[in-house]
Amino acid sequence: MRTLVFATQKGGCGKSTLAACIAVAARNDGHLVRLIDTDPQATLSNWQSRRPAHDVVVDAVREAGEIEPELRKLRREGTDLVIIDTSAGMNATTRTAILCADLCLLPTRPSIADLESTVTTLRVVRAARRPFAFILNQAAIRGERGNLAASALSREPEHGLASVVALPFIASRNDHQDALAAGLTAVEYAPDGKAADEIRRLWEWIEMRLNGRSQRSGPADMLDDDDANVPWDSCL
Ligand SMILES: Nc1ncnc2c1ncn2[C@@H]1O[C@H](COP(=O)(O)OP(=O)(O)OP(=O)(O)O)[C@@H](O)[C@H]1O
Ligand SMILES: [Mg+2]
């Protein structure tokens, strides 16, 4: 069983949206998937209650001490992919989720404020020595902002880009918002649309990364201790 954890300090960068999207994309790919909603805002639990079919189960787990027992139970039941959505900020539940992760996914919008706010989450991920990747979400459909943000995040493009920044960038598209309102994800709401295509390709990237088939985990994933000093603004 593999565990993905969506985490970033900043609110509204797409953790819940992408967690649901990746869950459905992986389910469509034949995986037995379970979502865990650790956020008291209950975005995923509410999404599930709007969902026409009870085919992707969301478990609400709010206490740090409940996460590991829940993961053991899901493993026994034969789940092969668990996706944990966390709340904005940093708390004991999110720290525990990160410790349990096979891969931490840090969605961020390609703006200075969002990039800067990934530092807090990144410190926790690095202290836990978990593999991670950024997902650039809500990127403008046109323009170079996504590429510039990717360079800022990777800092060592020749070593790090393939493993540190997930591909493709996820554009800002109405399909994501309309799908969420209907209890769906973009891959179900408009399967032939661009949003759906980006999500399917993002799942492929994540699966490759989980299987160690992209650039291997290692020092290149673990940005330096002075990440906080990255001159983000010079890159945007
Ligand atoms: N790629 C996208 N295109 C358009 N809208 C998006 C995209 N990703 C997320 N959104 C929208 O942005 C809003 C915030 O997304 P979401 O709730 O997933 O963020 P979050 O990181 O989980 O927030 P929180 O930290 O509050 O839990 C939602 O209205 C969602 O529909
Ligand atoms: Mg959320």
Describe this structure in words.
The protein has helices spanning 15-28, 43-50, 64-77, 92-99, 112-127, 145-154, 157-164, 174-181, 186-189, 194-210, 232-235, and strands at residues 2-6, 33-37, 58-60, 81-85, 103-108, 132-139, 170-171. Residues 215-236 have low confidence and may be disordered. The N and C termini lie far apart (38 Å). With 236 residues, it is an alpha/beta fold. The longest helix has 17 residues, at 194-210. The chain has one domain (2-229): 3-Layer(aba) Sandwich (Rossmann fold), CATH 3.40.50.300. Adenosine-5'-triphosphate (ATP) binds next to helix 1, strand 6 and helix 8.
Strand percentage: 5-15%
Number of strands: 7
What CATH first level would be assigned?
Answer: Alpha Beta
Cα end-to-end separation: 38 Å
Brief digest:
The chain has 236 residues and is an alpha/beta fold. Helices cover 47% and strands 14% of the residues.
Strand and helix layout:
Layout lengths: L1 E5 L8 H14 L4 E5 L5 H8 L7 E3 L3 H14 L3 E5 L6 H8 L3 E6 L3 H16 L4 E8 L5 H10 L2 H8 L5 E2 L2 H8 L4 H4 L4 H17 L21 H4 L1
Parallel strand pairs: 1-4, 1-5, 2-3, 2-4, 5-6, 6-7
Helix pairs in contact: 1-10, 3-4, 6-7
This protein binds adenosine-5'-triphosphate and magnesium ion (MG).
Which key features would you list for this structure?
236 residues; alpha/beta; Rossmann fold; 11 helices; binds adenosine-5'-triphosphate; binds magnesium ion
